Amino acid sequence: MNTTMTLLSIYQKLPFYQAGHFSGVQALVDRVSRSKRVHVIELAIRQGVQTMILMQALASQPDFPIKHLKVTAIGTGFEQQIKQTGDRLKSFAESINLSFSYKVVIVKDMLDFNRDLLELDPREALGVFSLYGLWSLIMQQDRLESLMKVIKSINPRVMVMCEVAANLNSPNFVNRLI
Length: 178
Hints:
- The protein is of the alpha/beta class.
- About 40% of the residues lie in helices and about 20% in strands.
- A five-stranded parallel beta sheet has the order 3-2-1-4-5, covered by helices on one side.
- α3 links the parallel β1 and β2.
- It is globular and about 50 Å long.
């Protein structure tokens, strides 16, 4: 079984991932639903399950049809996997007749991330989505602060963060679970 299939199997069996996805997507939809053009910056896109849910939600709005959804996936590695996710999302968008574009932004270090990499358009409703993606920056405060300054400077309508409530950086393994 490949990595994508394994992760999708885990997703199906662990409902807390689904709860995070659905509540996060709903928060995003609530803030951008009346917009014709939507731009979502994904800080941890992985397999893009949450993006497919968002696509369905936006495409199924009878009163406020969306004209275009743009997703910018940010990463510091795994470029090939992020591109493959984009290919799956493009195929899914075609299947539901949704105008869609996808851009991958890879930076070597999160300190290199800046607003000029995002191709922002003032006509777009902007949202930021981070699904279990910021925990890795907790021990790198300068990178986390730099990322948050960029996000603040682009003034999104909404920023959705889903994170596991655990002490993931404790040197004592048992304390990580308490």
